[in-house]
Write a structure and sequence with these properties.
The chain has 2 domains: about 5-145, Rossmann fold; about 150-225, Arc Repressor Mutant, subunit A (Orthogonal Bundle). The chain contains 11 helices and 5 strands. The chain has helices at about 5-10, 25-35, 50-55, 75-85, 100-110, 125-135, 140-150, 170-180, 185-195, 195-210, 215-225, and strands at about 15-20, 40-45, 65-70, 90-95, 115-120. A 5-stranded parallel sheet has the order 2-1-3-4-5, with helices on both faces.
């Protein structure tokens, strides 16, 4: 991180940065408390589940940053993150996961989180990531960067993905992209749009070519980056 950025952070946050810490394990919460001890970050609230923060409501968003562990068995977690972002828009959100999972990253990205970190991260890297988030940056793991780079990437001169133009896509292709963002398979997309799987494959090949993506995961993340909303499944 540039020295000037560090200086800005320190000058603006010699004041304390209050944090809400969400994790269901006492030992993990105590570990994070130790890591943050002596830094500008102070854990003002620590709870077991995101539902506890939601229960407080907008009137108790008295923290600047929320560090939230992803649960293993909550399929509505993405929706809860989005709700927390809605009622506490001024709060930066950082999620912690045991492993890298594309669907989890997608849900967190859609919910507006500022950082997606793995629990294998070092304490120094965690602090650096929190500092970047408080500076207005979005922090995601290296695995995501690898997904966003073309397979032919061979050096610094190669251009990353995310440079496609939505206007190049036809109306049908946009519908398929929205299905990709929703995580649908070709079979589900075909049923959703009342077309054949073969037609879906033809459109998908055209989409990948137009936006410079190598696979459907890259295309979905590119679409999220460009503000494309998922196409909801038909009832």
């Amino acid at each position: 991180m540039p020295e000037s950025s560090v200086a800005v952070l320190k000058s603006e946050s010699d004041q304390r940065i209050d944090i809400a810490l969400v994790d269901g394990t006492n030992l993990f919460r105590e570990g994070v408390l130790r890591i943050l001890s002596g830094t500008q970050f102070r854990v003002a609230r620590h709870v077991e589940a995101i539902d506890d923060l939601l229960a407080l409501g907008a009137g108790d968003c008295d923290y600047s940053l929320a560090i939230i562990s992803l649960p293993d068995d909550d399929e509505t977690f993405g929706e809860k993150l989005g709700e927390l972002h809605r009622i506490c828009p001024q709060v930066r959100l950082v999620t912690l996961a045991e492993t890298f999972d594309v669907d989890a990253v997608r849900h967190c990205f859609m919910a507006g989180v500022d950082g997606f970190l793995l629990k294998t991260i070092s304490s120094r890297a965690l602090l650096n990531s929190l500092e970047l988030v408080m500076l207005g940056e979005r922090v995601f793991p290296r695995q995501l960067v690898n997904l966003l780079l073309p397979r032919s990437f061979a050096g610094r001169s190669a251009s990353p993905l995310l440079n496609g133009d939505l206007r190049k896509l036809s109306e049908r292709e946009m519908e398929i992209v929205r299905c990709l963002v929703a995580g649908h398979s070709n079979k589900v997309i075909a049923a959703q749009l009342s077309i054949t799987e073969a037609t879906v494959k033809v459109h998908l090949k055209s989409i990948l070519r137009k936006i410079g993506a190598s696979n459907r995961t890259q295309a979905a993340i590119w679409a999220l980056h460009n503000g494309v909303q998922p196409l909801e499944s038909a009832a």
